[in-house]
Write a structure and sequence with these properties.
Number of domains of chain B: 3
CATH topology of chain A: Cytochrome C Oxidase, Chain A
Structural class of chain A: mainly alpha
Oligomer: heterodimer
Largest sheet of chain A: none
Shape of chain A: globular
Largest interface: A-B, 89 and 77 residues
CATH class of the largest domain in chain B: Mainly Beta
Helix content of chain B: 25-40%
Shape of chain B: elongated
CATH class of chain A: Mainly Alpha
Radius of gyration of chain A: 24 Å
Number of strands of chain B: 12
Structural class of chain B: alpha+beta
Distance between the termini of chain B: 45 Å
CATH architecture of the largest domain in chain B: Sandwich
Number of helices of chain A: 17
CATH superfamily of the largest domain in chain B: Cupredoxins -  blue copper proteins
CATH superfamily of chain A: Cytochrome c oxidase-like, subunit I domain
Chain lengths: 561, 299
C-alpha cells in the first residue's frame, strides 16, 4: 500500500487549507462536490435538526409529565408532535444515514467519489432547503399578518384533516412542500448510491466481496426509490386537492381517506427499513472488529438484507388494522409482517455467533452496539406482538405503539448511529473521541432511554392514546408519564455529553493513526482524514477483508471464500 | 396470550445467550495477542435458526388467524340494539334508529345476558375527519372514517361506566374527545329510552328564567347547530340538547355537567376546551343566566 504517499498528500492539503482565508473555506464547502464533504454536511445538518426535534420532544414530555398540565396550549402541542415526527424522520434520520453512506460507501469500495458528484450536491442542498422551509412555517405559515403556525396535522397527516376546510392557512402547504422537496433529494441520493455501488467499485471488488455495509446501503437505496416515490406523488395529489379542486382525498366530494393511508404507509413502512438497514450496516462493521472475528454467515446476512427489502414492501397495511379491512386482507398483512421477523432474526443470531468465540473489546463503539442488540431484540418482539391484528385493535395508536417504534428508532437506530460516530470519528477527523466521555454518554443515555421507553409501554396498555395534549388525573397514567419525562432529561444530558465530546475531541483528542481499531475494510487503508480522492492508488482486494489479508498473510480470508 | 408467552420465551433465550457470549468471550488482559479463530459460518446452524423461526411464525400466524376469523368472520347476531355512531370534530353523536333516540357523547347500552345475548351493534361513520372509537375494556378500536361505514359490536355483561376516547388524531381537541359508555340493566336501559324519547321539556311553570332562556336560545345562532326535540331548533352540527340535563358531562366528557360549568361553557367554550368548534355567543350576563336555567331543566 502506498500509505506514506497518501500521508504526504494530505499534509500538503491540510497546510494549504490552514493558510487560507475563512471566506474561501466557506466558499469551498458551499460549492463542493466531494462525497466526504457532502457527507459531513449531511451529518452536521442532521445533528442541528436532532437538537431541534429533541427540544420539541422535551417540551412535550414536560407538558405530559403531570395530568391537566397547562405548560403549552393544545395547538402548540399538536404542532410539536407533528414537527418532532416529521423532523426526526425526514431531516434527522434520512440525512444522517445518507451522510454516513456518502462518506463511507466510496471509501469502502475503493472509489474516488460518488458516481454523480453534482447530483450529490444538488440532493444535499435541496434536502437542506426542505428542512429550512419546514421550519420557516413558524414565521410564515399564516402570511405576514399573523403569528406563525407550524403544521399540526401529525407526521402522517391523515386526510381529510389536511383538506383546506380543516386545515386553513398555509401550515399544511409548508409540510407538503418540505416533504416533496426532501423526497426529491432522497431519490437523487438513492440513485447516486445505487449507481456508485454498481459501477464504481475498484476492479477487484466483486459484489460478493463488498463489505456488508455496502450491501445494506444498496438495499436501502433501492427501497428509497420504491418507497419515497409514492409519498412524493401523494404530496402532489394533496396539493392538487387543496388548490386545484381535485378530489383524491377530499371525502366531502367522494374522495377516499383510506387512499391517503395506503399512499402514506406504502412509503411509511419501507421507510422504517430505510432507516434501520443502515443501522444494521454499522453493527455489521463494528461488531466483528470488536469481537476480533469475521462476520458469521456473510451470504446469509446478504440474503436476509435483500429479503427484508422485498418483504418490507408488502407489510404496510399493518398500520391500518383498525380501518375496517376484511379478514382476508388483515390475515395477509399479519402474515407478511410476521415473516419479516425471520430474516431479522437471522441477523441477530449471526451477530450473536460473531461474538461467540471472539475476544470482545468493550470500547465505546462496541458498547453502543451491545445496547443496540438487546434493545432491537425487544423492539422486534413487541413488533411481533403488534403484528397480530387483534393485539393491534387494542393497542394500535396507543402509547404502546409509540414506545415500540421509539425502541426501534432510538434503542435501535440511534444507538447504532452513536456507535458509528465513535467508530468512524477518528477516520473523519484524525483524532480519537474521548472514551471517558463516551462512557458517560452511554450510561446517561441508556438510563434515560430505558426510563422513558420502558415505562412508556404501560400507559398504552392502560388505554392512553397517542397525540393527546393532556389527560385526566384519575386514569392512573400520571406517575408513569412523570418517569418518562425524567428519562427524557437523562437522554438530553447524554446527548449533550456526546456533542461536547465531538467538539472537544476535534481540538484536544488523541491523534488517531490511519487504522486505530485494527480493522479490516478499505477505509482504514487510507489516511485519517482521507485525502481528496481517497486513495493515491486504486486498492486491490482479494477477499471481504482486504486489510486482514495484509495483516495476516499466513492465514488470508481469500483462502476461505 | 400465546403471542405474549412465545415472545417472552424468545427474549429470555436470545438475551440469555447474548449475555453469556458477551461475558464468556470478553477480552481478558491475560489473553494473548493472537486473534481468535476465524469462523465464517455454518450451514447447519444457520439453517436451524432459519427453519425454527419460520415454524414459530407459522404457529403464531395460525393462532392469530383463528382470532381474526373468530372476530370478523362471525355473522351479525340476530337480535341487537342498533346504534349509529357519528364522529364529529371533538364530540360523538349517537342515533338509535329503531328506538327513535338521538343523543351525544354518553352512550347508553343494555347489558347482555349470556343466555339471551343482546349485543349492541355499532354502525360508524364520520361527519368530518377520521376518528377512532376505542373503549379498551369493551373492545378493540375501530376507525370512524368519513365516506366509509365501519361496523363493530360490543357485548358487555356487567353494568357500569366504561371510559374511552378517540384514538385517531382528529385536530386540536383530539385529547378531549372522550367516550363514556353506560352499560345498564335491561330495565334501566328501557327507562332511559322512554325518557329520551320524550320531546323536550316545555312546561316552564314557576320557572320564569327558563322560559326567558328558551326565548334567548331560539332567537340566537344556537339553533343553527343544536337541536331541541319538539322546538324549532333542528341544527345537527352540534350535539342534540333535547335531554342535555340528563347527562353527567358536557363538552364530550371533558367537563362535569353543573349549572356553573354550563354557564361558563356557553360564555366562552374555548376557555374550557380551546379549539372547540362552538363559538362564544357573546351573551350578556342576564341572558347567560336565563339560557343556563333553560338548559338545566332539559331533563
Amino acid at each position: 500500500m502506498s500509505t506514506t504517499q497518501a500521508v504526504e498528500e494530505s499534509d500538503e492539503t491540510l497546510a494549504l487549507q490552514q493558510g487560507r482565508p475563512p471566506l474561501n473555506v466557506v466558499y469551498e464547502w458551499l460549492t463542493t462536490v466531494d462525497h466526504k464533504k457532502i457527507g459531513l454536511m449531511y451529518i452536521a445538518y442532521a445533528l442541528v435538526f436532532l437538537l431541534v426535534a429533541g427540544v420539541e420532544a422535551l417540551l412535550m414530555r414536560i407538558q405530559l409529565a403531570i395530568p391537566n398540565n397547562h405548560f403549552v396550549s393544545p395547538q402548540v402541542f399538536n404542532q410539536l408532535f407533528t414537527m418532532h415526527g416529521t423532523t426526526m424522520i425526514f431531516f434527522v434520520g434520512m440525512p444522517i444515514l445518507f451522510g454516513f453512506g456518502n462518506y463511507l460507501v466510496p471509501l469502502m469500495i475503493g472509489a474516488r467519489d460518488m458516481a454523480f458528484p453534482r447530483l450529490n450536491a444538488f440532493s444535499f442542498w435541496i434536502s437542506a432547503f426542505a428542512g429550512i422551509l419546514l421550519y420557516f412555517s413558524y414565521v410564515g405559515a399564516s402570511g405576514l399578518y399573523a403569528a406563525g403556525s407550524a403544521p399540526d396535522v401529525g407526521w402522517f397527516a391523515y386526510a381529510p384533516l389536511t383538506a383546506r376546510v380543516f386545515s386553513p392557512g398555509h401550515s399544511t402547504d409548508y409540510w407538503t412542500l418540505a416533504i416533496f422537496l426532501s423526497g426529491i433529494g432522497s431519490i437523487g441520493t438513492a440513485l447516486n448510491i445505487v449507481t456508485t455501488i454498481v459501477s464504481m467499485r475498484c476492479k477487484s471488488m466483486k459484489m460478493s466481496r463488498m463489505p456488508l455495509l455496502v450491501w445494506l446501503y444498496l438495499v436501502m437505496a433501492a427501497l428509497v426509490f420504491v418507497a419515497v416515490s409514492p409519498l412524493t406523488a401523494a404530496q402532489i395529489m394533496l396539493t392538487l386537492d387543496r388548490y386545484l379542486g381535485a378530489h383524491f382525498f377530499d371525502t366531502q366530494a367522494g374522495g377516499s381517506a383510506v387512499l391517503w393511508m395506503h399512499f402514506f404507509w406504502i412509503f411509511g413502512h419501507p421507510e422504517v427499513y430505510v432507516l434501520v438497514l443502515p443501522a444494521f450496516a454499522f453493527v455489521n462493521e463494528i461488531v466483528p472488529v470488536f469481537s476480533r472475528k469475521a462476520i458469521f454467515g456473510y451470504p446469509a446476512m446478504v440474503a436476509a438484507s435483500v429479503g427484508i427489502g422485498f418483504i418490507s414492501l408488502s407489510v404496510w397495511a399493518h398500520h391500518m388494522f383498525t380501518v375496517g379491512m376484511d379478514a382476508a386482507a388483515n390475515t395477509f398483512f399479519v402474515f407478511a409482517t410476521m415473516v419479516i421477523s425471520v430474516p431479522t432474526g437471522i441477523k441477530i443470531f449471526n451477530w450473536l455467533a460473531t461474538i461467540w468465540g471472539g475476544k470482545v473489546i468493550f470500547a465505546t463503539p462496541m458498547i453502543f452496539c451491545v445496547g443496540f442488540l438487546f434493545q432491537f431484540l425487544i423492539a422486534g418482539l413487541t413488533g411481533i406482538m403488534l403484528s397480530a391484528a387483534p393485539f393491534d385493535w387494542q393497542l394500535g395508536n396507543s402509547y404502546f405503539v409509540v414506545a415500540h417504534f421509539h425502541y426501534v428508532l432510538v434503542g435501535g437506530i440511534l444507538f447504532a448511529l452513536f456507535a458509528a460516530f465513535y467508530y468512524w470519528y477518528p477516520k473523519i477527523t484524525g483524532r480519537m473521541m474521548s472514551e471517558k466521555l463516551g462512557k458517560w454518554h452511554f450510561w446517561l443515555f441508556l438510563i434515560g432511554f430505558h426510563l422513558t421507553f420502558d415505562f412508556m409501554h404501560v400507559p398504552g396498555l392502560l388505554g392512553m392514546p397517542r397525540r393527546i395534549y393532556t389527560y385526566e388525573a384519575g386514569r392512573g397514567w400520571g406517575a408513569l408519564n412523570f418517569l418518562v419525562g425524567v428519562g427524557a432529561i437523562f437522554q438530553a444530558a447524554g446527548l449533550l455529553c456526546f456533542l461536547y465530546n465531538m467538539i472537544r475531541s476535534y481540538y484536544h483528542g488523541k491523534e488517531a493513526s490511519h487504522d486505530p481499531w485494527d480493522a479490516w475494510t478499505l477505509e482504514w487503508s487510507t489516511t485519517s482524514p482521507p485525502p481528496d480522492y481517497n486513495f493515491a492508488t486504486v486498492p486491490t482486494v482479494n477477499s471481504r477483508r482486504p486489510l486482514w489479508d495484509l495483516k495476516h498473510p499466513e492465514d488470508p480470508d481469500s483462502d476461505y471464500e | 396470550m400465546l403471542v405474549l408467552s412465545v415472545t417472552l420465551a424468545i427474549f429470555l433465550i436470545v438475551a440469555g445467550l447474548l449475555l453469556y457470549a458477551l461475558v464468556r468471550y470478553r477480552h481478558r488482559p491475560e489473553d494473548s495477542d493472537r486473534e481468535p479463530a476465524q469462523i465464517y459460518g455454518s450451514n447447519q446452524i444457520e439453517l436451524s435458526w432459519t427453519v425454527i423461526p419460520i415454524l414459530i411464525v407459522v404457529m403464531l400466524f395460525l393462532a392469530t388467524t383463528r382470532v381474526i376469523l373468530g372476530t370478523q368472520g362471525i355473522p351479525k347476531p340476530e337480535q341487537t340494539t342498533n346504534v349509529t355512531v357519528i364522529g364529529h370534530q371533538f364530540w360523538w353523536e349517537y342515533r338509535y334508529p329503531e328506538l327513535g333516540v338521538v343523543t351525544a357523547n354518553e352512550l347508553h347500552i343494555p347489558i347482555s345476558d349470556p343466555a339471551k345475548p343482546m349485543p349492541t351493534y355499532l354502525t360508524m361513520s364520520s361527519a368530518d375527519v377520521s376518528h377512532s372509537f376505542w373503549v379498551p375494556r369493551l373492545a378493540g378500536k375501530t376507525d370512524v372514517i368519513p365516506n366509509r361505514v365501519n361496523t363493530m359490536w360490543i357485548d358487555p355483561q356487567q353494568a357500569g361506566l366504561y371510559l374511552g376516547q378517540c384514538a385517531q388524531y382528529c385536530g386540536s381537541q383530539h385529547a378531549k374527545m372522550l367516550l363514556r359508555v353506560y352499560a345498564q340493566s335491561p330495565a334501566d336501559f328501557a327507562a332511559w329510552v322512554s325518557q329520551q324519547k320524550k320531546p323536550a321539556q316545555q312546561d316552564f311553570t314557576g320557572n320564569a328564567a327558563a322560559a326567558e332562556g328558551q326565548t334567548v336560545f331560539m332567537h340566537n345562532a344556537c339553533i343553527n347547530c343544536h337541536a331541541v326535540g319538539g322546538t324549532a331548533a333542528t341544527g345537527r352540527f352540534g350535539p342534540d340538547l333535547t335531554h342535555l340535563a340528563s347527562r353527567d358531562t358536557i363538552a364530550s366528557g371533558a367537563i362535569e355537567n353543573t349549572p356553573a360549568n354550563l354557564r361558563k361553557w356557553i360564555d366562552d367554550p374555548s376557555s374550557m376546551k380551546p379549539g372547540s368548534l362552538m363559538p362564544p355567543m357573546h351573551l350578556n350576563q342576564h341572558d347567560l343566566d336565563a339560557i343556563t336555567a333553560y338548559l338545566t331543566q332539559l331533563r
